[in-house]
């Protein structure tokens, strides 16, 4: 069932973010949400989801691993039948995008 109201859309985006918290950056051992790598979630027609994210460095050798983990995590969301991951490089990622939890875990002030 496609979400129709603004509340349903926000609730579904919240479920997606929760699922994405299961995707761990293998180098930093922290999830991509707390690292601030997820820039946008767009819900399209016919239950298609586009996830825009960046990586901590351009040319990251783990991009395929993270993308595959995202696709696996999205399978837990029954309302989403297809997912597309788009890597974006603007705005550039920096540590200011990280959550307090991620900063503490990595010892960043």
Automatic annotation (TrEMBL):
It comes from the Bacteria. Residues 16-86 form the MIP18 family-like domain. Coiled coil: none annotated. It holds the Pfam family FeS_assembly_P. Gene3D superfamilies: Fe-S cluster assembly (FSCA) (3.30.300.130). PANTHER family: FE-S PROTEIN MATURATION AUXILIARY FACTOR YITW (PTHR42831:SF1). This is Metal-sulfur cluster biosynthetic enzyme.
